[in-house]
Write a structure and sequence with these properties.
Strand content: 15-25%
Largest sheet: 6 strands, parallel
Shape: globular
Radius of gyration: 24 Å
Distance between the termini: 68 Å
């Protein structure tokens, strides 16, 4: 039975302390869980069978919350004192030091409350005398003094201030593993440069960033330069609970591919599955809500292969409750969100290729391949595009791949479909982020009008999961076409690329 506490009864600094406690206590096996009664899927949903099947104790009351630290005080060696009044980034520094010292990061106020309750923990390091002015000085000190001892396979990128701050998500995993917590803004040149020093020390092909960035494109493109992907998780909870237990994945069987005919074959993808907090929260609600219609037509759900490590039970829930028409594909752009080519200019994110080092690209592709094999995923969706070198790297290093989609933001003509020498297809999406039922319907009708009756055509789209195009509406759209036009067939992503390959082979044979 897991002890539980609701994060809603904790201050921001207490969340930092308690998440570290969870990490240390759960190092050998899950014993404590943090709950959030605002979680849209329900605070206890994932703990029920068939996900993990762990019984939860009643949440500790606000008046008794420090008893949890008393109960597990033997799991920590002491405390690291910090003061966030002058500089909120001291929270991340203290969390990092505490992770290395097997300690709890605490303010003087929290430490006083521990002493009042007779919880005697020695001060292992006192950071309250440090007077760093801001993030650059704080993380430069972290890099110089503590980074050499940190776990390098992942870092937690967590905002340590404000209402949008991240004070406990995935911090338990950092505490358990001795990983660093940072928050560097890649829009600011010297912070971006310092961030790069951390990234350059991480083992490309065996490392990710957990958390999020000051802005999406500045952070993701900066990390991509070093071959490092991001697993968006600034709202993901209880990594040390869900990472425990069996990591055997129940890969669902693939139905037989339909026969190739002179039709328009359409694959519809759902966005945002690379985001493991979405998979934990919003996707669960959308998945369960659409259960009555799922299976009527093929839907292709993006999902994060890194769940095989962080939360195999969550991945298995989706796999075990999927219908034959639910196909899972890898979210952008493989093992961790990368952006090998950026097509949208934003501060800190210049246009063009971000990953020009072939060795790093190969390492990332091989890393992706290992996780595709473990999860059974055979299609990758890529943001925004891939250069010829990057496409060749996927083709050479991911033998299990059936196909890859690339985005088409702003209808950029530089983003194009292609076929690698080994036959791997890179498919330019017709619409990369469809949000309108009518726009999607009209586009499919326009593609159907190009059928000549002598050969099949193929069209792939991605729906914006945050738009009105929810799974139910997509099924409604597909059913509408099925009633009106038998020449349009919606297919799973794996079938889409298999049929496309068969079509190309027919053309090659016929041309000989």
């Amino acid at each position: 039975m897991l002890e539980t506490i609701d994060v809603g009864i904790l201050t921001h600094d207490e969340q930092l302390t308690f998440s570290a406690l969870v990490g240390h206590a759960n190092r050998r096996q899950p014993r404590i869980a943090l709950l959030n009664h605002r979680s849209e899927e329900g605070p206890e949903t994932w703990f029920y069978t068939p996900t993990v099947g762990i019984q939860l104790a009643q949440p500790i009351s606000e008046s008794d919350k420090y008893s949890l630290i008393a109960d597990f005080a033997g799991e920590v060696a002491g405390v690291v004192l910090y003061d966030a009044e002058l500089n909120p980034h001291m929270r991340n520094l203290a969390a990092t030091v505490a992770a290395l010292r097997k300690a709890l990061p605490v303010t003087r106020e929290v430490y006083g409350k521990l002493q009042e309750r007779g919880i005697s923990l020695p001060v292992l390091e006192d950071l309250t005398s440090l007077t760093f002015a801001g993030p650059f000085e704080t993380y430069q000190h972290l890099y110089d003094a503590y980074w050499p001892s940190c776990e390098k396979r992942f870092i937690v990128s967590a905002r340590p201030e404000g209402r949008g701050g991240d004070y406990h998500h995935t911090r338990d995993l950092a505490a358990a593993c001795g990983a660093a917590a940072l928050w560097l803004d890649a829009r600011i040149p010297r912070e971006r440069e310092l961030f790069g020093k951390f990234l350059a020390d991480m083992p490309v092909g065996n490392a990710v960033i957990l958390g999020w960035h000051a802005t999406e494109r500045s952070g993701v493109t900066t990390a991509t330069r070093y071959g490092i992907g991001t697993m968006p998780s600034d709202h993901f909870m209880n990594a040390t609970v869900f990472a425990g237990g069996s990591h055997e994945i129940q890969i669902p069987p693939t139905p037989k591919t339909p026969p190739l005919e002179n039709k328009l074959y359409v694959a519809l993808f759902l966005s945002d599955g690379d985001n493991i907090q979405y998979v934990q929260h919003a996707m669960r609600r959308k998945w369960d809500r659409s259960a009555a219609v799922r299976g009527q037509q093929p839907l292709n759900w993006t999902i994060a292969p890194g769940l095989v490590d962080v939360a195999p039970g969550i991945l298995n829930y989706y796999y075990s409750t999927a219908t034959p028409n639910d196909c899972f594909v890898c979210g952008p752009s493989g093992m961790g969100y990368t952006m090998p080519v950026n097509t949208l200019l934003e501060p800190g994110a210049p246009l063009g290729s971000t990953l020009n080092d072939e060795a790093r690209m190969d390492a990332y592709a091989k890393f992706t391949s290992r996780y595709l094999q473990r999860t059974g995923l055979r299609v990758v969706t890529v943001w925004d595009d891939l250069t010829a070198m990057q496409r060749q790297s996927f083709a050479a290093n991911c033998p299990e791949l059936l196909g890859v989609t690339v985005q088409n933001f702003r209808d950029d003509p530089a983003v194009a479909s292609s076929v690698a020498e080994n036959g791997l297809r890179f498919e330019k999406l017709i619409i990369p982020y469809a949000g309108s039922y009518d726009d999607l319907r009209r586009s499919i009708e326009a593609e159907h009008a190009k059928l000549d009756g002598n050969s099949p055509r193929f069209a792939a789209y991605q729906a914006d999961i945050w738009s009105p195009l929810q799974p139910e509406r997509l099924v409604e759209l597909m059913n509408e076409f099925k009633r009106k036009n038998p020449q349009i067939e919606f297919v799973r992503a794996d079938h889409y690329f298999e049929l496309q390959r068969e079509s190309r082979q027919r053309v090659e044979v016929g041309g000989k």
